[in-house]
User: Fold these one by one.
Assistant:
Number 1:
Amino acid sequence: MNAQNEQNLIRSPMLWLLMAASLVLPLALAPVLNIRFDEAFTLDTTSRDVAYAIRQALTFEQQAPLYFVVLTIWRNLDSSIFFARLFSILCLPLFVWITAATAQRYVKSVNPLLIAAVAAVHQQVVWSALDIRLYSLMLVMSGLLMLLFYDGFLSERPSRRAQVLYTVAAILALYTQYYLGFQLVAGAAALVVLKKWKPLYRYLAAMFVTGVAFSPMLLAFSQQFSEVSSHTEDALSVMQLAKGIYQRTMPLFVSTDWIEPEALKRWLARILALAISALFGWKLLNRREPADVALAVMLVVLTGFHLAAYALLGEQGIQHRHMSAMILPLLLGGFSAAAVFQRRRAVYIWLALLLFLNAGYLYFAYLPLAKPGDFVRVAEFVMANEAENQPIIVFHADAVLPLEYYYHGKNKLIALPQRTNFEVWDPRQNVLKDEAQIVNIINQQAAGAERIWLVNDGWCRYGTLPFNCQILENVVGKYFEVEKSQAFYDPVTVRLLRRKAL
């Protein structure tokens, strides 16, 4: 790529304005939104020293440790929830910059600022920025890999410096999130398809160094994989796998989930996907531009590996956030397809559509000013209505962790069926066995209390593993009368129960 063009992009006031604008919504929402229970896990993992962060990342979190180490150091400056979230937020403008630089290389016929504008409001990118988890950093790493892959291996004049930086980025990526390893395989596959043999040899050498650097993690990774794969209860059919991957990929491509009615949402997504795929396929067959071929191979390989992970780890093992490496190739591929017409109008129509769809999603997703659990309002409601000796039972058990950050009332929080074990997280710890188990816990933990609060966060299963919520409802119906009930966001219920006279 022309060095002068790259310098012009870096110095572009519009790019810096776009990066600054990307911070407005996250910074406005960050102080307001409650934390999810996953975020409460992160706050605990990063609440002590680096050694604790590494141990918890490898055992309890079942994750690579880099993000948790960095966040532990970051939180030494300020231990607040907002500051922890700020780290993810600051990754957003960096990803916007990386998107523009990457677009300048892969889609030369489109103004890179247009693609960066979509990245700034992409619903999954914004979600990641507002989450105290590793996914915003994962986005940055996936973007860096695409950027450095082009300069180091795909360019007509590969840069040795970019090859070295790509190797460093690959190592850091694997220590951030294991799924980024799929992107490393995709890079090799792209070079094979393009028959770039000399760059491929250098790429394989870089991967050898990456493998050696990652080798200390192999034992931990093996143990983590064994533990996480055991959480899957039922095998999924081929059709279920294909449908699941489709449903997880489409929102990363076109954000139609907020549209009603359901049929309109489904068909709009299908039509747009088919139209863009057809245009991109035509361009591949007729022009065979190396960048387009590389994007196509990356998307195919990434989809295949995510499908395999879905089969091995189940529904919870592959969610939208885990597929962050797909976002940038999908963005670039869509704009490359729109540029087939060689008219700016088509590109601007595609831009306007993506901006509208993502903005619509963000509006409706954050209109409640709450994340799932809505624990700020739950805590406020209970504290405003509680009396002494009214213990608060919380189901599922992990929901106790975020609620503790906001509840400062008169009564104790009781996890049902048990407190989270911070040695190794296992969703089966949340399974209710039978009515007798629940009654015994209530009698032991809430002995002598005529009234108790029940907070149910609505999380009744982990993938195909049911937590048996109906058993809890049976106990409520048999032994209690509901004096007060209040529904909260997505879909939390809080009830004040009074024991029945038996």
Number 2:
Amino acid sequence: MSLTYRVAPGGALSGRIRVPGDKSISHRSLMLGAIAEGTTHVSGFLEGEDTLATMNIFRALGVRIDGPEHGKVAVHGVGLHGLQAPREILDCGNSGTSMRLLCGLLAGQSFDCELTGDDSLRRRPMRRVTDPLAQMGAVIAATEDGRPPLRVTGRSDGLHGIDYRMLIASAQVKSALLLAGLYADGCTCVTEPAPTRDHTERMLAAFGCPVECIDHTVCVNGGGRLTATAIEVPADISSAAFFMVGASIAPGSDIVLEHVGVNPTRTGIIDILRGMGGDLTLLNERTIGGEPVADIRVRHAELRGIEIPEALVPLAIDEFPVLFIAAANARGETILKGAAELRVKESDRIQVMADGLRTLGVHADPTPDGMRIRGGTYHGGMVDSRGDHRIAMAFAMAALRADGTIAISDCANVATSFPGFAELAHTAGLRIGTV
């Protein structure tokens, strides 16, 4: 389906809004709920295409799932060894999270299965997951260059724990290994070079699985069991990020983003915007279901260019498309290094963002692992999102400061993470329409 955003210039963001539920937590609630004993009740579930792909996969694996209905889901767990062989190829759609985490979970089953996805997902590298899983005894076949489709051979009695040191910080790799570790003989430990989102560790603990976390190392033992629990999914900070940047760059903006997950492994966007001079205040901070949550008030501020600290890169990896828009509106130059991971997301986000920014007249110079952006005025134009949901939404926010209409093509995949984005953004004050 073809979808184009047309966003008229100007305007401001205001009011109180709640963006959809956290995608990472929604995925994991299904995965762990499915292999737990008992019924897991989830509220605030993200009803996006990526998470629905995960839901359909577990239904194909013999798990009864009720919903989603207004964000509520009931997962009737079958226990660690209760999944059934699927009758069809398992389609992950556009979801790299689904495919990479399922590699670990499915490697320990008693049956074989195949994972595929859409054209974009089949171009994404999988060796970063399949190679360390192979060290645990997993058998996963891919294309010659390590891309999907993936053929997973069940090794219900063949996995063993390892002590793995990741070279690149990746929550997906860490989570895949921890899930495989549930089925492995002995202890599985994963050491990160830098902190990444820790939703898997937090949720495993909530399901009653002992998790040991020391410094940057996380360990689980095989042979345990998970017990169903209740999960309340907070609003996704990655989705809130578009409104954080939009309000920061648009004069007259003052918006409150409600019930946002502010897990410290995800708040790089807040730290970076504050470093650029952004005006962000956390209100009503609380902990719900083991996850920190807050309302975030964002007001317009004059941003300045900075060199983004590399320690913050893993904590904001999904937010860089919209942070590049912040940089385009900042005084001076913004420099990003250490973010080569952006080149293997749903698109090459460094190059695609640089192309779009240049189309609008922004000085943007891509580097192998980042970007240099000089802020200033820019005009309207036609930008190709290359089917990348985060790029589409980022350029929509750019129109708040453009001197002409910005049209963004190939936006249908926004529904993978943020169903209803255009409608909610319009309510908040963005002059957005679709064709």
Number 3:
Amino acid sequence: MKAAGQTPLFILDEQDDARDSRREVMEFLDGDSIAGFFKREMLAGADYGPRSYPLPFAYPDRRVPQDVEGSRNTPIFWAGHRQFGLRRLYLEHLESARGLKLDAVYDQTEYVRVLLDTRIGLNIFGCGFDTVRYWELPAHGCMLLSERLPIRIPHNFRDGESAVFFDDTQDLEEKIEYYLAHPEEVRAIARAGHEHFKRHHTGSMRARQLLAWMHVPVR
């Protein structure tokens, strides 16, 4: 901090929680002012103080497929741990109600292949509200079907246009039943979600957003 002199200080909080940690970080750094505070898990409607900006995850440009328009034969996809949030509740309900098997384990190559074969990709909160899946699914051309995030997402997907959001088990079940019966809508939302993702949520686009916030004049 002493060596930095008058260089503007920005703090980036990428933790899996929504609490405001700015004060304790400043105490640890023994500093008295910052130029900006970037937070991944920024609750919508909460006040994190002046010059605080949401900065959720993105997805690396190099991992975004060039072609996502192929045929897709996997109706619904999930892979991952179940011990966080309401994941176990949702997944066990879907497996029981719809006869799905959502516990497969893949290596990286097979995982990407399945993503490119999936019509509807499921996203459920993990340790935090923001997950890699939220960005990974539309990056691979799946229709994002996600638990509704209560955090601030700049340029977020629009419900029913570029993604579909659900609020509880009944809502999830009803939306799965509807969209499985309307494959053309699934394709249209998936295509819109993929284009929206490329415009706003690649790693390079998130970096541009961060740099733009850094150039906001301090008053």
